[in-house]
Amino acid sequence: MGRIRQHQTQDEALLFERSSPGKIGYQLPRMDVPETDPLEALGAKLVRNDVAGFPEVSEVEVIRHFTRLSTWNYAIDLGLYPLGSCTMKYNPRLNEAVARIEGIIDAHPYQPECLAQGLLRIQRTLEMYLADITGMDAVTLQPAAGAHGELTGLLLIRAYLESRGNARRTVLIPDSAHGTNPATAAIAGYEVREITSNRRGMIDVEAMRAMVDGSVAALMVTNPNTVGIFEQDIAQVAGLLHEHGAQLYMDGANMNALVGVARPGEFGVDVMHLNLHKTFSTPHGGGGPGAGPVAVRRHLEPFLPVPRIQSTSEGLRFDSNRPSSIGRVRAFYGNFGVLVRALAYILAHGGDGLRNATVDAVLNANYVRKGLEGHFDLPYDAPSMHECIFSDALQAKHGVKTGEIAKRLIDYGFHPYTVSFPLIVRGALMIEPTETESKRELDEFVEAMQAIASEVKADRDLVRKAPVTTRTSRVDETRAARRPTVIWNDDGRN
Amino acid sequence: MRYLPKSPAERAEMLATLGLDSIEDLFASIPEPLRQGSSLAIPAGQSEYEIREYFEARARESGRGYACFLGAGAYNHYRPVVVDSIATRGEFLTAYTPYQAEISQGVLTTIFEFQTMVAQLTGMDVANASMYDGSTAVPEAGMMAVRITRRERLLVSRALHPEYRQVLDTYYQRQELPADTVAFDPETGQLDLADLEAKLAPDVAAVILQTPNFFGIVEDVREAAELAHRNGALLVVVFSEAASLGLLAPPSEADIVAGELQSFAHPPSFGGPYVGILATKQRYIRQMPGRLVGQTLDSHGRRAFCLTLATREQHIRRAKATSNICTNQALVALMATVYMALMGKRGLRELAEQNLSKAHFLASALQASGAELRFSGPFFNEFVARPTRRSANEVNELALRSNVIGGLELVRFFPELEGTLLVCATETSTREAMERYATCFRRKPDG
Amino acid sequence: MEYPVEFRYTEEHEWVKIEQYTATVGITHHAQDQLGDVVFVELPAIGAKLQAGSPFGAVESVKAVSDIYAPISGDVTAVNEDLLDAPEKINDDPHGEGWLVRMTVFDGAEIQGLMDAQKYAEYVAAETVG
Predict the structure, then answer these.
(1) Does C62 touch chain B (CB under 8 A)?
(2) Residue B329 CB neighbour total at 10 angstroms
(3) What torsion, rounded to 10 degrees, do the Cα atoms B202, B208, B209, B210 define?
(4) pLDDT at B104
(5) Residues A182 and A160 in one domain
(6) Do A481 and C88 touch (CB under 8 A)?
(7) What are the tens digits of pLDDT across the range B139-157?
(8) pTM for this entry
């Protein structure tokens, strides 16, 4: 008997290693025009031989290759994906179908406006609904992602303050914030000053009072914040900023806790972004594409990026003639295909349905929190909204950290929670179940976490070796970073 | 609601577990005055059928069944069905950024293949996991050049896609960094090298040019690179039509390549989502923005992949990060990867040759019917035509009546090019449709 | 862990060894332990002028970046180029082969403000508990 090898579905080679000259996976239509000689049309200097190293494989190999690789992924379609602040909820398949309707998927961004009325209406309707949800006055759909929305938002603030004479110097950011907040502030040309959270995990209004002066352009705040807690003093914070002519920016990453329950526009927010790939269920797709619409109060509207959608007697049109605008933040009109999916999600829920989804999201997070209390350390006891944050303090005593607990969770068939974030909690476990999890799935997750807590005490090496049930065992990230190999070369199989 | 997997009894049971009487109690931490007073004005939830009908109706209000000769940064190429059958697999569609490498090898491996193929196409050493789109990849490349050279000024070709240039202006002006434009030669449509040479100064961080440029004209990257490098500046080469890379010499003389891969199996989709790329020389890898996947081993010594060099990024370096970018366009990048795999070395070449032939056929047909080519430089699948017997606007109005969407009227972006059209043909343009469009250039029949 | 008695230490966990008019600088055992596996080191150019207390480079692990601060003022005369290919030397031998830069000593008095080995060991112990 020969040596038993791993099944080929678990040992798929790279495309380049499957390649063999002359294999093809395509056939182009027959040419109906005379051929143009590239050398004649372009000259030898501008023409390449071939794309060296490019693969040559057949169609069936392509299907098998990617299908096999797909089975090495975890996904929402397989189970609970409780990454905190990422809002990994079910991605309805209808949304994929409507984004592919002919007339939508094949629309060219420069086709005449008379042939784009339906597409403009889709955007107009989504803008209106998002304004209703956020309690803001105007919405731009152009930013391609959350961080891109943040940049757009800060540029709006900058332009607004400049119009009043002074762009100011600093942006205040709580120490619990996402890394994109300070990175964005820096790119928008601001210095970042960090605000220390108080013992309840919230912004300390008194400490902040000492920091707000005429040099402060804005505060960027996430609400509920990254500890999953509603910032109870948000209205006072807004008042304090406005008193000093500063603006309140809200990172809407956690909007899944508020839709239909509270409107940021009603608690003093001047500008915010939404993550359609979080709250409005457009697929994360392994890291993108997303969309990060920005909603503003009336005073910031003149500065919104071009183009804006305008209603005229002849129908809807794009308006680029806006002298106060910050300009264009990306080509064309945003990630239109993502916008279509988000609108389909909103239509499916309706106003009351969106609120019900929020209720279930908060219910699920608190249910998980209840199940894990006592087994894991709870650093802040303020009530949780859509996510709950624990620390590894009880497990660290046994030498096991949050990252290792996360890897062990994989063996129980779940995707880990967010590890070591927010930074203000040492050894954080940040858990966001979302509303699209059944009670049964949550119960199994809680049981798994409790079992791991016991394992830490009984057999910590088991936890530290995890995962042991996956195709790929613990990956050596240090090796990858010390000598980075980011493209394939012939000696590929090391 | 069909997306919420709970029965009323389960909800009640869960509330009881929490010791709460009503769902309102879940929101006790939101101060009463901050809670929403009125319900949302969004109509009641709809069925799948109704929603489909809604979007079908919107699609009917838009253009369906037209032959389209628009390019200008968004191209109509044929999309093999295999692409969508892979991209709609839940394992790819519904996964997150692959932070947990042990259960994300699928997406990590495909990104590694993507990075490799982008590097091969562009003639660069390394490529990242993708950017939002071509237009936003340009300012990222510009800022990268500023970090590398510690200089500030950018020289930007006027033949760069005007919307890309506008995006660059938005990013750049707010940082109070200087940027100048370099003219294009009014005869050839190529970058005016004399103007470039005159404007190169010791504070120039990078020269940014596009090829094929916005007018479809292929640039001589080598000469621009020489001029830039002689002055200690970097050369950033931008492309918006990836199909050209099947035929054109790779811009290996560049230091950074930023571009748009929409042509590879992503539909125009009214402008997005697309997929930007950023590639560079090995020595600049740590100055790159965006996600990067690297090769390594698992604890059993088998090849594995993981996100790497994360210390460049916002979640670690925060205010000092190379960029605020967080996402990559993994799903669109996957579609491009599947497409590149299907096309392969030969397919990509053949595709590019078909595009070249179709565009040259169309150019001749328009010339024969009543147009002249505005520029003399070599072109790939787009060109600027000036109708000689009718106005550009008239030509397109007429075209619409025969179900043809004509080229882009360039006056929109270039006042000096009033009366011209940017026309694009791809492998999807049929001879019949091209001839139909050409007819619209003919002289009005008398009377 | 024994901290060499001939070294002086900063609160940012750098060590400095003075020999005549030259100082060698590195990060301490405790610093590398907190950081984990070092994957990359960013070092200044030879000739760079360092200001006591100002950052002059960075040490990176897979998921963290730590700025390195100059313990004293002076000009960089040598950098440890071995670290570019083998950053792990910082983990393996932080007080020896894992040194970062050599520099001139501009003001001998600056050294007075730094901790000796015993004080540093106490400082680390206190920080670890807190």
Answers:
(1) yes
(2) 32
(3) 170
(4) 97
(5) yes
(6) no
(7) 999 999 999 999 999 999 9
(8) 0.95
